[in-house]
Structure of Threonylcarbamoyl-AMP synthase:
Amino acid sequence: MTATTTAIEHAARILNEGGLVALPTETVYGLGADAESAQAVAKIYAAKQRPANHPLIVHVAPEADLSYWTRDIPQEARKLIEAFWPGPLTLILPKNPAIDDAVTGGQDSIGLRCPSHPVAMALIRAFARLRESGQAGIAAPSANRFGHVSPTRAQHVRDEFPQECANGMPVLEGGDTEIGIESTIVDVSRIAQGVPVVLLRPGHISATQLEQVLGYPPARPDGAVPRASGTLKAHYAPQTRLSLFDASDLKGLLASRPQQERWAVYAFEAQPNGLPAQIQWHQVPSDPVRYAHDLYALLRDADQQHFDHLLIQRLPGDVAWDAISDRLQRAAAAFE
Ligand code: TXA
Ligand code: MG
């Protein structure tokens, strides 16, 4: 289940003509456009119904000339690139002024990521071959409508963008995404001004792994950093009403269910005996890597089955769960 070379080359031509293409990455599927074209980037904002001042991540190939996109690559960024690219790490760097402001939402920094998914890499390379400069960047947010759950399968993208697909937007097949949650975002754009490395969005690459490479822990956002939609309080939300529960509260919660309501419960424990038929129980993985892999598809399942309420057990407090806790809390905040 992976896109053919012909499909990839067709998609590259569409990018080069200013059109939209959905592509798999190792984190989630992206909705891609030529990062250097303001008109192409505008199509992403329109399709996603996303505010145009929210900057997009530019996806580049491992051999990309980073000076084409940035003014300066601090030593810290070089170390992180060496350790984690290609892979699920986005770096916010000082932008090369020659790059159009549309992709950065007017900010003078640029988010760069080198994805490891073979289809994403092949697409960027095929696109670069069509460019005179030999450089190509695909601006790609997650391929979901603003505020929704990110897609981890090609079918999720088709569900989110039926109109665009009917109008010929290619959705490159890449199977279930391996990681399942969005990349870790690290801001290294203001180191020259004395601002430390900031972890803007937790992800599969943890704060601990970043610290191992940097030699010190990254700082947390202080509010002065540019706004990132993935960092809004309510985001990543399913349509189904969602709440988080502690194991000790579950009995009482289940007892409070109005009789006609159908509930889904995602818990670490196995299904207890004697559950009413209106409650669907799903035992979630106890390992954070597998949990992240499954999470978004599970949220979409609850929507598709039209449950009245989705109850998800709160996650363990240790750092290995940070990125997933972040997503779940934002998803639940949409219903508070
Ligand atoms: O895993 C991912 O990162 C996926 C795949 C498709 O690569 N992409 C993704 O994009 O999650 P998106 O747009 O849903 O989230 C990107 C986040 C946004 O919250 C955006 O505001 C932030 O990155 N961002 C991008 N460029 C930035 C910049 N120059 N300064 C601050 N934040 C930036
Ligand atoms: Mg997103």
The chain is about 30% helix and 15% strand. The chain has a mean pLDDT of 94.
